Amino acid sequence: MTIDDRPVRLAVRDHGGSGSPVLLLHGLGGTLLHWDAVAPLLTGEHRVVAMDLRGHGLSGDGPWEWDAVLDDLQAVIDHLDLDPPMLVGHSIGGMVAVRWALRHPDGPGIVNLDGLRSAETAPEHYAGIAQEELTELLAELKAVFDAQADAMAHPLPEAHIAMLPQRSLRTTDAGVHVRPDAALARQIRYDPHFQDSIAAVPGIRCPALFVLATENMPGLPGRTGDLMPALRAGIRRDLLPLTADRPHLRVLELPAGHNMVAELPDRIAQAILSHAAPHARN
C-alpha cells in the first residue's frame, strides 16, 4: 500500500500476522523486499509490517533528517493503527531504530542489525590496526565511495539495469538511476549519526538487541576487506562496555557479514522472536 496524504509518500507492505507489531526497516539502498525471507517467520507471533524509507524503493523523496524519518515511521504506525511496535532495522535502518529508541524510551524496544557505524567512520573508531596501514586503507575506501558516488550521479548503463531490482530504480528524462539519488546518498554519507551511532547507545532506555557481524561481505573491492576486521573490533571495543551494566541492552554476534538478513534469515528471525518474547504485548 501507499500512504500519500503527507509531504513524503510512503510505500508499505503489511505481511499480516497476529500479536504485537514489528516494523521492519531496510538498509541504505535497499527496499522493503529486503525482508521477504524473514517476515513470514515472524507472522506466527507478530503483526509484521515493512516499509520503504524515504528516498528508497517506491517511497517519495525528501531530505534525510532523522526526526523527519521518525515522523515517517509514526505516519505508518498511525495509518495502520498499530500499537507501539518493536522496530527492527538493518544497517541504516538500525541507526533509525536507535533514534526511535531515544524518542520512545518506554517503547517495546528495538533490534539493530549491524547498524552502528558506517565503514567510512573516524579513524579512532577502528581498533587493532597500525596507524600507517589505517591511513592507507581509509584513503582507498574513500576512493571506492567517491567512485560509487560519481556513478550514482549518472544514468545506469543499459547492461546494469536488468541486474538490479526494479524497485531500487527511478526513471527520469535523463535515463534510469539508482535510489537513493546521489544527493541524498551524499547527505547520509557524511552525517555524524550515520558514521557513528554508538555515541547514542547510553541514552537508550527501552530493550535493545544489537546483532553484530563477525565476517566480511564477499566481493569487497581492493584492500577494503582488510579494514573491516578493524571496524568490527572498534565496534565491540566501544559497545560492549556500554552494555555491561545495562541489562536492557544485549549483544549477539552472528557468523555472517553485513548482509546478514539475506545470509541467515532463520537466525535473524530467531533473534527477533527471542528479543520480543519478554516484551510482547498482545
Write a structural description.
With 282 residues, this protein is of the alpha/beta class. It has 9 helices and 10 strands. The mean pLDDT is 95.
Summary, kept brief:
This protein is of the alpha/beta class and 282 residues long. The protein has nine helices and ten strands.
Q: Could you give the distance between the termini?
A: 25 Å
Write the H/E string, N to C: EEEEHEHEHHEEHHEHEHH
The dominant shape is: globular
- From the helix content, strand content and strand pairing, which structural class follows? alpha/beta
Our Rg estimate from Cα atoms comes to 18 Å
Q: What fraction strand? A: 15-25%
Poorly predicted regions: none
Strand order of the largest sheet: 1-2-4-3-5-6-9-10
Helix content: 25-40%
The main sheet comes to: 8 strands, mixed
What's the number of extended β-strand segments? 10
- The total count of helices amounts to 9
Q: What's the mean pLDDT score?
A: 95
